[in-house]
Structure formats: C-alpha cells, structure tokens
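Work Package 4 report. The design task specified in the project plan requires that, given a folded chain encoded as structure tokens, an amino acid be chosen for each position. We show below one input record used in the internal validation round.
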C-alpha cells in the first residue's frame, strides 16, 4: 500500500470537514464532539494492542482522523499501520505512540477552538 499524500502540516482541514458534513455547522460540531470523545479510546486500544492487533488498531485511528480531515494525525496513524507488527517494548512502537499522543492532543486543542 502506498502512503497517502495528505498534508501533514494540517491539523484539521475544516474545508474537508465542511464537505463531509454538507456545510451543516451543527453536524460538524457533533462530528467533532464524537471524534473528541472516541479518539483517546482508539489510542488506548493501539497502546494495548498485541502484535496481531497493531495494524487493525492503527487503521481504525487513521480512518477516524481521515474522516474529519485531521491529516496530521491520520498520517502518523498511517505510518503506524504501515510499519507492520510492533511488539510490546519495541522502541519504534513507543516512539510512534508518543507521536500519536502529541498529534491527538494538538487536534483536540484545535477542535476546542
């Protein structure tokens, strides 16, 4: 699978979100609230994932981020998915999880603004 071309500098693409919600501001607000409520859980699942579930958990986080136009988070989740199996204690795994946490926090700040 080839890597995406999402602009990793974009924390939240409100134009994408606007298109996704058909310009309905209330719906966009609800979508962002749902994402903000659920996204930390995706990261928790990824943190606890064993080797067999790593890719699936990363894919779910990527899809959720992509859906709202959170390109910066989606790209990091995509890299986690593409890196393959990451066992517990693997230093690459810890670095990826740390990066995802930072990017999720950035996104949650952006959502609240």
């Amino acid at each position: 699978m080839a890597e995406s071309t999402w602009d990793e500098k974009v924390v939240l693409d409100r134009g994408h979100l606007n298109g996704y919600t058909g310009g309905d501001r209330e719906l966009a607000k609800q979508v962002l609230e749902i994402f903000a409520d659920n996204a930390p859980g995706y990261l928790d699942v990824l943190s606890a994932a064993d080797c067999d579930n790593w890719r699936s958990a990363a894919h779910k986080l990527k899809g959720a981020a992509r859906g709202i136009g959170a390109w910066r988070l989606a790209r990091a989740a995509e890299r986690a998915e593409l890196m393959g199996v990451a066992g517990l204690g693997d230093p690459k795994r810890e670095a990826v999880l740390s990066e995802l946490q930072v990017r999720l926090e950035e996104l949650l700040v952006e959502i609240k603004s």
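The mean pLDDT is 90. Validation will be extended to a larger panel in the next phase.
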